[in-house]
Amino acid sequence: MALLGADVRLTPHRREVFEILASSTDHPTATDIFDRVKARSPGISLATVYNCLEHLTSAGLIKQVHLERGQSRYCANLHEHVHFHCETCGKVIDAHPAAEFDPSKFWNLPKGTKITRMDVAIHGTCEACSAR
Amino acid sequence: MALLGADVRLTPHRREVFEILASSTDHPTATDIFDRVKARSPGISLATVYNCLEHLTSAGLIKQVHLERGQSRYCANLHEHVHFHCETCGKVIDAHPAAEFDPSKFWNLPKGTKITRMDVAIHGTCEACSAR
DNA sequence: TGTAAGCTTAGAATCATTCCAATTCTAATT
DNA sequence: AATTAGAATTGGAATGATTCTAAGCTTACA
Predict the structure, then answer these.
(1) Domain A82-131 top-level CATH class
(2) Start and end residues for every CATH 1.10.10.10 domain found in chain B
(3) pLDDT tens for residues B46-71?
């Protein structure tokens, strides 16, 4: 499987980790994924999960997300999006673009700076928590 | 000292941590700050540095920044800005707004979502590294 | 089928941070 | 100035997340 230039050998474990992440919308952590993979592959080790996540990430099939300190989260949504993080319940949701967005229009970066990617984390209170 | 609603008792250690951060533009980590404070207060412990950073953060005098996994960085720039992170040399620089920016205009957040803050991290290659 | 390369494992090691219990300091009150 | 309660500070232990290591296992293909 090749994408964005890098290749990964899709071993059964890597495929499972990828499939589990692709069917999750909750931005699970490595241990969340470990727990879910164990249901299908009881013998898998946490080290393997970390290893799979690393290979999938560097192949560009998934993305690692850092919203706060503590565990990294992972995300298989490769469409352009940002993360909304509810500070009350901890939920993370993807928000997709409503309009064209070019960061260099909004912030003065020094001349010659090259942008490869941008991470936007919006923190606040989700709908459900706001209602309470 | 009070700002944004919270108070901190500005003990000598807290003042030093704050002053060191306020005069730094490199977004130092807790251990960077520890090393710098030791020059003035040789007896200070790392636990105290962490404690000072936590109090200053919750009083709103400084901000904690998470750009990657690993150590948190700290920033005393309270003006609206985003962080540019050079993936080659690791340098972090502040970029200030060139234009008015309202996140809710650019991304479709569910109705009822309340935004309290937004963290933007732009990753790429800085001017000096691009030139090489 | 032999073999090198890459995958997986359990457990150890590391790193960053937080916790803890003891001590010291501060500031307000006698 | 002494008393005292509440904070601040300390060193070290504990924790949590991740990475490393060394050994065994698989796979593709020569």
Answers:
(1) alpha beta
(2) 2-75
(3) 999 999 999 999 999 999 999 999 99
Q: State the average pLDDT for chain B.
A: 93
| Count of C-beta atoms within a 10 Å radius of residue A16 | 20
Contacts of A125 in chain B (CB under 8 A): 113-114, 116
pLDDT in tens, A92-131: 999 999 999 998 899 999 999 999 999 999 999 999 999 9
Distance from CA of A72 to the nearest CA of B (A): 7
Tokens (6 digits) for B85: 């992170």
Helix (H, G, I), strand (E, B) or coil at B88: coil
User: Is CATH 3.30.720.210 the right assignment for the domain spanning A2-75?
Assistant: no
| CB contact residues (below 8 A), chain A span 108-127, against chain B | 108-127
Confidence of residue A8 (pLDDT cuts 50, 70, 90): confident
- What is the helix (H) or strand (E) element at residue B53, kind and residue range? helix B46-58
The Cα A104–Cα B9 span in angstroms is 40
Task: List, for residues A74-95, the tens digit of each pLDDT value.
Answer: 999 999 999 999 999 999 999 9
Q: How far is CA A55 from CA A11, A18, B111, B115, in A?
A: 11, 10, 37, 34
Residue A93's nearest CA partner among A131, A40, A44, A129 is A129
Cβ(A103)–Cβ(A120) below 8 Å: no
pLDDT of A5 above 70: no
